[in-house]
């Protein structure tokens, strides 16, 4: 069993776990000895020891001109866990007390748009999951064909699973890029990148709009606002019917 990992699970930091284990193995020891055996610098060791003392996991005493630190029995960990559990329960009760007031404040600002920010692979997956979870009746997209971007197969197929009417406007610097074939639920059009130099994918679904920047590290935002999304849908409709689309 990896004791350090298990100690971190019950609330100790990595350095606290290292120093506590070193104290258990050495018995009464100076900060210098604990630091050396724990692989933690001496200044940090003093800070960690004080924290362990506050948690009831260590004590200290003087012998001559030196101060020795001694670990408390492992049974004290049970008391620490019980104390943390007690604090969590108290904290939960406090949240319950203030929750109605917080909710009232939040709902009083209901007219403001809800904006969420995402980044990285996890962010990309979260945006796709939100689109699927929302179960929109229709889906409109503007997709720049940036060649260096390599989307996962999961990302490529996620939207197809919706089986709802879907329209996509592609922008490309190429005159005849490879595009996915049209299907029963999927219609597409193409516009030259020079006429519409957008480099951010836009997905409109329900009362939400997702804007995805695909260059280098993925970044994206989801805007949830009926008025904003309605405006974006009007712009999409105008673009869809533009004579330069083919």
UniProtKB/TrEMBL annotation:
One protein family per Pfam: TrmB
Domain Transcription regulator TrmB N-terminal, first and last residues per copy: 7-74
Matches recorded under CDD domains: HTH_ARSR (cd00090)
Matches recorded under InterPro entries: ArsR-like_HTH (IPR011991), TrmB-like (IPR051797), Tscrpt_reg_TrmB_N (IPR002831), WH-like_DNA-bd_sf (IPR036388), WH_DNA-bd_sf (IPR036390)
Superkingdom field: Bacteria
Xref: PANTHER family: HTH-TYPE TRANSCRIPTIONAL REGULATOR TRMBL2
Name of this protein: Transcription regulator TrmB N-terminal domain-containing protein
Organism annotation: Candidatus Sungiibacteriota bacterium
């Amino acid at each position: 069993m990896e004791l350090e990992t298990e100690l971190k699970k019950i609330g100790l930091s990595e350095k606290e776990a290292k120093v506590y284990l070193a104290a258990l193995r050495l018995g009464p020891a100076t900060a210098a000895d604990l630091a050396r055996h724990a692989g933690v610098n001496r200044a940090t060791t003093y800070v960690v020891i004080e924290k362990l003392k506050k948690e009831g996991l260590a004590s200290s005493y003087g012998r001559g001109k030196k101060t020795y630190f001694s670990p408390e029995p492992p049974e004290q960990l049970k008391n620490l866990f019980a104390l943390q559990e007690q604090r969590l329960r108290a904290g939960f009760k406090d949240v319950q007390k203030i929750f109605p007031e917080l909710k009232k404040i939040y709902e009083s600002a209901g007219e403001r748009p809800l904006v969420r920010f995402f980044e990285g692979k996890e962010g990309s997956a979260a945006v796709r999951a939100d689109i699927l979870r929302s179960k929109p009746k229709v889906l409109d997209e503007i997709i720049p064909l940036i060649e260096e971007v390599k989307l996962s197969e999961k990302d490529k197929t996620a939207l197809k699973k919706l089986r709802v009417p879907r329209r996509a406007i592609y922008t490309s610097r190429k005159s005849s890029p490879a595009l996915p074939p049209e299907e029963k639920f999927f219609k597409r059009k193409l516009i030259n990148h020079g006429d519409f130099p957008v480099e951010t994918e836009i997905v409109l679904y329900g009362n939400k709009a997702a804007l995805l920047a695909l260059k280098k590290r993925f970044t994206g935002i989801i805007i949830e606002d009926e008025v904003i999304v309605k405006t974006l849908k009007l712009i999409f409709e105008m673009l869809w019917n533009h004579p330069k689309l083919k």
